[in-house]
Amino acid sequence: MIIVVNDACFLIDLIDVDLLDEFFQLGFQPHITPSVLAELEGDVYEKPARESIKQKKLLLHNLSEEDQSEILNLMQDHSSRLSQPDCSCLYLAKKFKRQS
User: Fold this and answer.
1) Topology (CATH) of 2-99
2) Pairing outcome for strands 28-32 and 2-5
C-alpha cells in the first residue's frame, strides 16, 4: 500500500474538479493531519473531507505531543517558508518513511 500525506490545497483541488472519489479509487492510503482538516473548517471543503474520514477513505492521523514538538522544530527550521499545516504534513511523511 502506498501512503500519501495530503495537504489542504490538494484536497481543495480534488474537490473543486469533482475528482475526490476517483482519487480514493487509485489504491493509495491517504492521510491528513488535524491542522490540515482545520484549514478546511467552515468552508465548503470541510463536509466532503469529514465524510471521507467518516467512511475511512481519508485517514486523520492524530499527532502525539512528541509529534507536535517535532513539528514545531520543523517550523523553526522553515519559519518563513512553511506553515504549521505544511510542517505537519512534512513531519508525517518523514515519519512514515522512517517506519517503512
Assistant:
1) Rossmann fold (3.40.50)
2) parallel
